[in-house]
Design goal:
Helices cover about 35% and strands about 30% of the residues. By secondary structure, it is an alpha+beta fold. The chain has a five-stranded antiparallel beta sheet, with helices on one face.
Length: about 260
């Protein structure tokens, strides 16, 4: 039985396809598959191994990409179908399809940006469904992801990727969305920020939100290290300390703790 395959047709300018845009198209397609795979699996299923099964070396170049999973073809189908449907949806209108994170949409945008840069067409085919990333997709992704409004907020996550070459910024990976947020800080704080690299932190400041109401970037006003989740006390630990939660309301519990401290 033939394996389920994503067919990628790539057309170049002047009846040919240059190697650099071809490699970029293939690389970004594989990253798109991996990103949707990660979103669909939610970290609970084995990742799919993707490989190019065949290439027809004529314009349009025709590549067959197959996936191998210990869970069988059904797991592969759960990725390939959303990839094609999601790419087609964003190309038609500014929406966030299922299993398309902000990072995933950025990868789809990269495919659209390859058009008129050595390529004239990229087309996905799977199980009778087709999709083409175009300049419409690029515009729709920009409409979704570019900053739309500002508000003060706080984020928790792991601090990574400190960069002081073009200013002073670091990345924090939000514990809520799992996505990276660019955080701008005062360059005088570089040594303190560097000491927190790889640690769980809470940052507060004025944030830029996109149309999806996700934080895109933040001008940091305050930051501090916070305990790792594994180091936080468990309910059983608090009861062993003599704290009885009972069945009361949370506000009554907090009021009682305050009264004990006075």
């Amino acid at each position: 039985m033939a394996r389920k395959a994503l067919i990628v047709n790539i057309t170049g300018e002047n009846q040919g396809v240059g190697l650099p845009p071809l490699v970029k198209a293939l690389s970004n397609t594989l990253k798109l598959l991996e990103s949707v795979d990660a979103e669909a699996a939610h970290g609970k299923q084995p990742r799919i191994h993707w490989q190019v099964e065949s290439i027809v070396m004529q314009s349009p170049y025709r590549m067959s990409i197959v996936g191998e999973s210990s869970l069988g073809d059904a797991a592969v189908d759960r990725v390939l179908r959303p990839v094609v449907a999601g790419t087609r949806a964003i190309n038609e209108r500014a929406v966030q399809p299922p299993f398309f994170s902000q990072e995933t949409m950025g990868l789809a945008k990269r495919l659209g940006l390859l058009l008129n840069k050595g390529l004239t067409r990229i087309r996905f085919e799977y199980d009778g469904e087709v999709a083409e990333p175009t300049q419409h997709l690029v515009a729709n992704v920009d409409a979704l992801l570019q900053p739309k409004y500002q508000a003060k907020t706080s984020l928790r996550g792991r601090l990574e990727e400190v960069d002081v070459h073009k200013g002073a910024e670091f990345r924090i990976y939000s514990e809520v969305t799992g996505e990276a947020v660019k955080c701008l800080f005062s360059k005088e704080q570089t040594s303190k920020v560097g000491a927190l690299l790889g640690k769980r932190v809470m940052v507060s400041g004025r944030a830029n939100y996109n149309q999806l109401h996700r934080v895109v970037s933040m001008r940091v006003e305050d930051y501090q290290e916070v305990p790792e989740q594994a180091d936080l006390p468990r309910l059983e630990d608090l009861r062993n300390l003599g704290i009885d939660f009972g069945k009361g309301r949370s506000e009554d519990l907090v009021r009682g703790i305050r009264d004990d401290d006075e």
